[in-house]
Amino acid sequence: MNAVPKVPALAQPTLKDAMRLAAGGVAVVTAGVGEERTGLTATSATALSIDPPTMIVCVNRNASALPVIGRRRHFCVNMLAAEHEHVANRFAGFGDVKGAARYAEADWLPHATGALTLEGALASIDCEVEELIERHSHVIVIGAVRGVRIGAGEPLVYARGRYHRLARP
Question: Using 50, 70 and 90 to split pLDDT, how confident is the model at 149?
Fold first, then answer.
């Protein structure tokens, strides 16, 4: 009988290593108005409930957007289309771009709460903060949906530490 070959053990895989394998849509979460505008790139934004419509976003405690979300009590989840990779990079802080400067090189429209919507996003979900829950390195931000805009295009996807575009059927 042939022996089953042993698979070499990985050197201490981590939760981060495992989660990098899960493909996820890329969103830019916006908050603030005027020069207080800021935001972040996230793959951890999802619907918590459809009835009532509620979103959840996990934000690192060190994110500059977190205090603004707490003060303004609003945020907008902008689901990015494939052509918005440059927007994802700006809001991820590449090139040391911070605060209101992250909004350059794209067109933005205000939603009902005052949070900004990316023109041309696949979808924009405007939320009013219901609750902030502190857990470990992150804060779970729960938001009541106050408005939704739907766009068109193919989603920008993140997996294995880089962006991907879905193949068209």
Answer: very high
Nearest to 160 by CA among 15, 13, 16, 21: 21
What is the H or E stretch that residue 90 is in?
A: helix 85-91
* CATH homologous superfamily for the domain 24-165: Electron Transport, Fmn-binding Protein; Chain A (2.30.110.10)
pLDDT digits (tens, 9 = 90+) for 22-59: 899 999 999 999 999 999 999 999 999 999 999 999 99
- Using CA atoms, how far apart are residues 49 and 143, in angstroms rounded to an integer? 10
Q: Is the Cβ–Cβ distance between 126 and 148 less than 8 Å?
A: yes
Radius of gyration from C-alpha coordinates of the chain: 18
CA distances (Å), origin 126, targets 111, 143, 166:
6, 9, 26
